[in-house]
Amino acid sequence: LTFLGIESSCDDSAAAVVRLGEGGAEILSSIVEGQVALHADFGGVVPEIAARAHAERLDGCVERALAEAGLTLAEVDGIAVTSGPGLIGGVLSGVMLAKGLAAGSGKPLVGVNHLAGHALTPRLTDGLAFPYLMLLVSGGHCQFLIAHDVDRFERLGGTIDDAPGEAFDKTAKLLGLAQPGGPVVEREAALGDAGRFRFPRPLLDREGCDMSFSGLKTALLRARDALVAEKGGITVQDRRDLCAGFQAAVAAVLAEKTRRALAVYLDHSPAEPALAVAGGVAANGAIRAGLETVCAAAGVRFLAPPLRLCTDNAAMIAWAGIERYRAGIGDEGDLVARPRWPLDALAAPMIGSGK
Ligand code: ATP
Ligand code: FE
């Protein structure tokens, strides 16, 4: 079973070809064209610019993905496209293109929830069995999900304000560091003293798996301003210590909330207990180490797919398409683009599947 996948819900235009054969799943190609440079001057993703860039680039991404896979459209078994959630202009670009390709080739078309794409990735990379626990932690998302089945995800909790990636990016900005902030802050933190500034660990006193990261940014801003007021500026070492303190706080919150999410998950008596991460923040070594420790203590396997599959890509969309197609859940003619589409509402509103 071979699927073409198309992704355009945020600021990456992507296309990929994935095959499920007897030996398991194989990524035949995965093209990702980022737009960091296009949005750099605006301090964030500009929806109109993103939509236009997707419209201009997606065709080429698809051509390259097929060429690298050594296949023509006639040789794939189906097409999967991200139909939400995300910036509606970009999602529409992908959906329109996919509909055109499907109509022209007569291939089945499957609409995929972007978050489900992330959440199903550990099955693409490691053939993980349901149910497993998923921590999605990126620039736009932060949530715990139990993946029970291809289209059944149970949300245990998540951030009530900023996502951790966003907090890393804002921290970098406050300290005059480059974007995206995550890798830079991690590098600075490695040279800093995490014990010098004690930042808050929000919501740890509250039960459940919800998190909050916006207060951290305020605390960091206050610490920075106090240093500036005291001596007129911050030194290189101050900056490293601030980064280290910030990162330690994020890692501690994620580790503790993961411990609680694992307890809820283990109540389901999974046969092969596992925690998988997705999202760019999962690249962070300190955060990963915290999660690994918690998993080891709970006797749960910890799994982090390679970073290029943790961040936005189309291989995960092609794979989710294969999974849905195999399960008999398809989107036929009237697939629609959705700006909002919570994962735990996935099973209910599949439009056009008739199944
Ligand atoms: P989403 O896909 O959820 O809409 P996104 O596209 O912003 O959001 P990703 O591409 O998965 O998310 O990840 C990007 C985020 O990951 C950025 O906020 C970036 O700062 C963060 N990040 C990347 N590397 C690291 C790191 N080493 N430590 C912490 N954060 C990191
Ligand atoms: Fe994403």
UniProtKB/TrEMBL annotation:
InterPro entries membership: ATPase_NBD, Gcp-like_dom, KAE1/TsaD, TsaD
Subcellular location per the Swiss-Prot or TrEMBL entry: Cytoplasm
Catalytic reaction annotation: L-threonylcarbamoyladenylate + adenosine(37) in tRNA = N(6)-L-threonylcarbamoyladenosine(37) in tRNA + AMP + H(+)
Domain Gcp-like: from-to ranges: 26-319
BP terms from Gene Ontology: tRNA threonylcarbamoyladenosine modification
Molecular function GO terms recorded: iron ion binding; tRNA N(6)-L-threonylcarbamoyladenine synthase activity
CC annotations in GO: cytoplasm
List of residues binding substrate: L136, V137, S138, G139, G140, D169, G182, E186, N284
Cofactor(s) the protein needs: Fe(2+)
Keywords for this protein: Acyltransferase, Cytoplasm, Iron, Metal-binding, Transferase, tRNA processing
Residues binding Fe cation: H114, H118, D312
Cofactor: binding details: Binds 1 Fe(2+) ion per subunit.
Record-listed E.C. numbers: 2.3.1.234
Domain of life: Bacteria
Main location group: cytoplasm
Keyword field contains Oxidoreductase: no
Enzyme class: transferase
Function as written in the Swiss-Prot or TrEMBL entry: Required for the formation of a threonylcarbamoyl group on adenosine at position 37 (t(6)A37) in tRNAs that read codons beginning with adenine. Is involved in the transfer of the threonylcarbamoyl moiety of threonylcarbamoyl-AMP (TC-AMP) to the N6 group of A37, together with TsaE and TsaB. TsaD likely plays a direct catalytic role in this reaction.
Homology family: Belongs to the KAE1 / TsaD family.
Protein's name in the database: tRNA N6-adenosine threonylcarbamoyltransferase
Gene encoding the protein: tsaD
